[in-house]
Design goal:
This protein has 290 residues and is of the alpha/beta class. It is built from eleven helices and ten strands. It is elongated and about 85 Å long. Bound molecules: S-adenosylmethionine.
Length: 290
C-alpha cells in the first residue's frame, strides 16, 4: 500500500490500526496518518480513544464498537465503507482482535469484498515474548485465563504436553492463584511474569512457576497489567504422561484380570500396541508381586 499523506482522503475500506500498550511514542507514522485521514473511528471506548487522539492532536468522529453492540454496529460500519468511507478500527490498547473485538467485523468486511488492511504495531503478546527469554520458535497464545481455579487447572492441563511456549493475559489480583494452578498442573517450568510493558514501571520477573507463585504470595499482588509466559512442555513429559496413564490403567486392570487379558484390554482401550502393553503389564505384575 502506498504511504498515506497527513489528512489525505483515504481509499474506502476497513483499517485495523494498532495503538500503544503504554508508551505513546509507540505508534507508527502510518498509523497516525491513517487515524488523521479516517472518516470514522470505531473503538471499544470513545473516552479511551478520545484521549489517545488528543495526545496526537487529532479530532475525529468515533463510534463505539465492542462485544455488546457488535451485531448492531457491524451492518452500519459496513454500509459506510460501501458508501466510500475509510473506517479505522482500534481497541483500547494494542492490536485489535488480539483478545479484543473485531474478528467478526473483519470477517464480514472480507466476505463483502470490501478493502481491509492492517497497520501493525504494538501488542502485549510479542512484547512479552521478546522479553521472557523463553523459546519463541513455537508459541501458543491462550488469551485470558479462566476465572475459577478448577477451570484454570483444566485449561493448563489441556496444554500439559503441548510443545510450545504458553503465553496468556492475567489480572494482577489473580496472579498468585494462577501461578499456583500452573505450577500444580504443569510442574516447575521456567516462566516469566511480564508487567507494565513499555511503561514507567516495566518489570520482567523470571523463575520457575513455584518460585514465582511463592514470590508474589509473599509480596502480595503487584499493580498493573500482566502477561505470563511459560516455557514449553517436552516430548519427554508427553511420553512420561502417557506412560503414567497407561500404568494407572494397567494397574487397575491387573487387579481384576490376568496379565494377558489385562494387556489385551488396555491395548485396545488406549489404542496401543499389544506387545508393548503386554511387556509393561508383565513388569508391573512382577513389581506388584515383589
Ligand atoms: N489487544 C491487546 C494487545 O494487543 O496486547 C490486548 C488487549 S487485552 C483486553 C488487555 C490485556 O493485555 C491486559 O489485561 C494485560 O493482560 C495485557 N496487556 C496490555 N497491555 C499491557 C502492558 N503494557 N503490559 C503487560 N500486559 C499488558
Amino acid at each position: 500500500m502506498a504511504e498515506i499523506g497527513l489528512s489525505k482522503k483515504l481509499p474506502a475500506g476497513l483499517y485495523i490500526v494498532a495503538t500503544p500498550i503504554g508508551n505513546l511514542g509507540d505508534i507508527s507514522k502510518r498509523a497516525k496518518e491513517t487515524l488523521a485521514g479516517a472518516d470514522l473511528i470505531a473503538c471499544e471506548d470513545t473516552r479511551v480513544t478520545g484521549k489517545l487522539l488528543n495526545a496526537y492532536l487529532l479530532k475525529k468522529p468515533m463510534i463505539p464498537y465492542h462485544e455488546h453492540n457488535g451485531a448492531l454496529q457491524r451492518p452500519r460500519i459496513l454500509a459506510k465503507i460501501a458508501d466510500g468511507a475509510a473506517v479505522v478500527l482500534v481497541s483500547d490498547a494494542g492490536t485489535p482482535l488480539i483478545s479484543d473485538p473485531g474478528y467478526k467485523l473483519v470477517d464480514e468486511a472480507q466476505s463483502a469484498g470490501l478493502m481491509v488492511t492492517s497497520l501493525p504495531g504494538p501488542s502485549a503478546v510479542p512484547t512479552a515474548l521478546s522479553l521472557a527469554g523463553l523459546p519463541t520458535n513455537r508459541f501458543l497464545f491462550m488469551g485470558f485465563s479462566p476465572n475459577k481455579s478448577k477451570a484454570r487447572q483444566d485449561w493448563f492441563s489441556a496444554e500439559k504436553n503441548t510443545e510450545a511456549t504458553l503465553i496468556f493475559y492475567e489480572s494482577a489480583k489473580r496472579l498468585v492463584a494462577s501461578l499456583r494452578d500452573a505450577a500444580d498442573t504443569l510442574g516447575p517450568r521456567p516462566a516469566a511474569v511480564c508487567r507494565e510493558l513499555t511503561k514507567k514501571f516495566e518489570e520482567v520477573v523470571r523463575g520457575n512457576l513455584e518460585e514465582l507463585a511463592d514470590r508474589y504470595e509473599a509480596s502480595g499482588p503487584p499493580k498493573g497489567e500482566i502477561v505470563i509466559v511459560i516455557g514449553p512442555g517436552t516430548k519427554q513429559s508427553a511420553g512420561e504422561a502417557s506412560m503414567i496413564n497407561t500404568d494407572e490403567t494397567l494397574q487397575l486392570a491387573l487387579k481384576h484380570m490376568s496379565v494377558k487379558s489385562a494387556s489385551a484390554f488396555v491395548a485396545e482401550l488406549l489404542g496401543e500396541k499389544r506387545k508393548a502393553i503386554y511387556s509393561r503389564a508383565l513388569e508391573l505384575s512382577k513389581t506388584k508381586d515383589a
